[in-house]
Rieske 2Fe-2S domain-containing protein (Deinococcus detaillensis), 217 residues
Amino acid sequence: MTKYRRADPEISRRKFINVALGTAGAVGGLGLVTALAGVRPPNRITAGKVPAIEGDILVYAEGAQSGQPLKASDLTDKITRAWPQGKDKDGKPVIKKDEPNNLLIVFKFPPAEIVAPTDLKGVQDGVVAYSGICQHLGCQVGDNPSKPETILCPCHSGAYDPRAGCKVIGGPPPKPLPQLPIKLDAGGVMATGSLNGPYYGLTESDWKSLLEEAKTI
Ligand code: FES
């Protein structure tokens, strides 16, 4: 009986590049560029790129406290930017800032102001977290000085309501900012799961694959 072995991804990749190089000789430089554009290195994510997962703590992404754990008591109804921090295989802390789409925005509102479609199970004491990257074309969202109850994407004026699941309330974004479920832990903020939908640029299916791949890191 024939036995099948899982292909070594590095060998497959090298084979593919060799084929691409051979093909390029026949069809010209553009063929090479096109072929190589589709080559993804094996193990394309690293501990610094893995999406936020349960148990990650959130750390400040900017300012004097950059890299330090968020203090829940310092959060406000304005944006605080944060990165998830997980651990590598050796248990060493890793801030997941090598993937720009891992950027988060975190708020603290009076709890009664937070309404559906926010996932209230992922909110504690008015603290709520979302992806900080616009779902239209991937710009960073920011506070909206002229309409402070909303947040605004500066690129094409996309607007979201952070008290209502970051649903879209203006402009071209096609869907809400995904929410990161959190809980408060030792005065800080800890993820209790992953974003409840794909961050910018990924389909649902790609997102699921990425989360699966993340388990192998
Ligand atoms: S990138 Fe945000 S509205 Fe276009």
Summary: The mean pLDDT is 84. The longest helix spans residues 9-27.
